[in-house]
Write a structure and sequence with these properties.
By secondary structure, the protein is α/β, with parallel strands linked by helices. It has two domains: about 280 residues, Rossmann fold, CATH 3.40.50; about 120 residues, Rossmann fold. It is about 40% helix and about 15% strand. A seven-stranded mixed β-sheet has the order 1-4-5-15-10-11-14, sandwiched between helices. About 55% of the residues are buried. The chain binds pyridoxal-5'-phosphate (PLP). Pyridoxal-5'-phosphate binds next to α13. The site of pyridoxal-5'-phosphate has 18 residues, from α13. Belongs to the TrpB family. Keywords: Amino-acid biosynthesis, Aromatic amino acid biosynthesis, Lyase, Pyridoxal phosphate, Tryptophan biosynthesis. One of its GO terms (molecular function) is L-serine hydro-lyase (adding indole, L-tryptophan-forming) activity.
Length: about 450
């Protein structure tokens, strides 16, 4: 027998509670603001579009929130997820660092996203709703929601950005296989869609327009609600199953991370992995044996695209969560809600803001952030695929870059650091992007600073 590579937990170790970092924040989060009244949002304001239980979770400061047994039953399909020691990559890099990654690509949709879509579908079903609407860009969130709604017998109506609908048909077929109805956005099914089509019948669409269409339907129909796949507190909460399992795996190994890396779009996958560790850091103690590591020394690094650099270049202010301006104002790092990022392949990282919880932790100095261009990230993903086999999502390639860089630094210094990467999903539907990389056709887009400045000038004065 060689050395151990995968660390697996039994199914009965699937967490029974989600971890809510709001209990451990040094000061409370700034509340979301109702754009009409300019006052903090009241639960009733959100009731037409979200189930009550999720609204409660959004504002809860309880440290632990029970995971319904029905949701844990579904999690059993792919959870607990494995923690890998990247021994082949360590050898290829000749690093003394210990490189670990948790692997969310084993879920049926192939990413971390069903950790929340399943929970959201469950609460909607429980509260008597019949249908969920949502938007999707490249289709990762849409397919995760289609999977979740199928399991609980709900309808799903998904607005997919028209450009992707035509260019990336496979995610759409996946959604349809799981029973969802998927429409190219702008569509003629909603007022917002028809308005855009009037101006440009061939509009390629945008996430902002697709969100408007999905929310419009949810507001019109009594038993239809809207679902969001990132950014909100309860989405991050549901994702903490990752970090909670991962801590148990490190306990099994007798190790604890020195440095955690993840890619951050809205921030849900990375938050899911690091929040339980960040809680240790905030409380100054861990519930597991940290094998001599001081929790205060833990470093946590967000990895984002240089062309959509929300944490490294954005301003920390109140802004809309969506381009259309339907959502409340959220306090976050933003490039402006009308900012349209360059068309990088990591579609999941093309978001103008970040989850308010993550922005707060960034401000408190609990985390830091770096930004990369797409060629260097695909180079890291290629190195990873050649050593470890798995072809990772273009989003994930951003943290692979930082993780590998740190391992190479350890090679110079001789440090045996424990480096953990959030491996959020596979890239099997993104092979076109890999092809472009292999052919040398990937563009490293500059950050469109003027566009962001213009968009930020429209941010509300609060
Ligand atoms: C959607 C997605 C992301 C980005 O979203 P976050 O909310 O920032 O996690 C990252 N990786 C994968 C594989 C995704 O599908």
């Amino acid at each position: 027998m060689g050395k151990q590579i995968k660390y697996m937990l039994d199914e009965d170790k699937i967490p029974k509670k989600w971890y809510n970092i709001q209990a451990d924040l040094p000061t409370p989060l700034d509340p979301p603001i109702n754009p009409k009244t300019k006052n903090p949002v009241e639960p009733e304001d959100l009731a037409p579009i979200f189930p009550m239980e999720l609204i409660k979770q959004e504002i809860s400061t309880d440290r632990w929130i029970p995971i319904p047994e029905e949701v844990r039953e579904v999690y059993r399909l792919w959870r607990p997820t494995p923690l890998y020691r990247a021994r082949r990559l360590e050898e290829a890099l000749e690093t003394p660092a210990k490189m670990y990654y948790n692997w969310e690509g084993v879920s049926p949709p192939g990413s971390h996203k069903p950790n929340t879509s399943v929970a959201q579908a469950y609460y909607n079903k429980k509260e008597g709703n019949e249908k969920i609407t949502t938007e999707t860009g490249a289709g990762q969130w849409g397919s995760a929601l289609a999977f979740g709604t199928m399991l609980f017998g709900l309808d799903a109506e998904i607005y997919m950005v028209s450009a992707s609908y035509d260019q990336k048909p496979y995610r759409k077929i996946l959604m349809e296989t799981w029973g969802a109805n998927c429409y190219p956005s702008p569509s003629d099914r909603t007022e917002s869609g028809r308005e855009v089509l009037k101006g440009d019948p061939d509009s390629p669409g945008s996430l902002g327009v697709a969100i408007s269409e999905a929310i419009e339907i949810a507001m019109k129909e009594e038993t239809t609600k809207y679902a969001l796949g990132s950014v909100l507190n309860y989405v991050l909460l549901h994702q903490t199953v990752q970090g909670l399992e991962c801590k148990k795996q490190f306990e099994m190994i007798g190790d604890y991370p020195d440095h955690i890396f993840g890619c951050t779009g809205g921030g849900s996958n990375f938050a899911g992995l690091f929040l339980p560790f960040a809680g240790d850091k905030l409380r100054g103690e861990s519930d597991i044996n940290t094998a001599g590591h001081d929790v205060q020394d833990l470093k946590i690094t967000h990895c984002e695209p240089a062309s959509c650099p929300t944490l490294t270049k954005g301003l920390y202010l109140y802004d809309h969560g969506d381009a259309a301006g339907y959502t409340p104002y959220l306090k976050m790092h933003s490039l402006g809600h009308s900012f349209i990022p360059p068309p990088i392949h990591a579609g999941g990282l093309r978001y103008h803001g970040d989850a308010p919880i993550l922005c707060k932790l960034q401000k408190e100095g609990v985390t830091d952030a770096v930004a990369f261009h797409q060629n260097e990230t695909f180079k890291a993903a290629h190195t990873f695929a050649q050593a470890e086999g798995f072809v990772i999502a273009p989003e994930t390639s951003h943290c692979a870059k930082a993780w590998i860089d740190e391992a190479l630094k350890c090679k110079k210094t001789g440090e045996q650091k424990t480096l953990l990467m959030a491996n959020s999903g596979h890239g099997h539907f993104d092979l076109g992007a890999y092809e472009a990389y292999h052919k040398g056709e990937l563009i490293d887009y500059e950050y469109p600073k003027e566009l962001a400045e213009k968009a930020l000038a429209e941010a509300p004065d609060i």
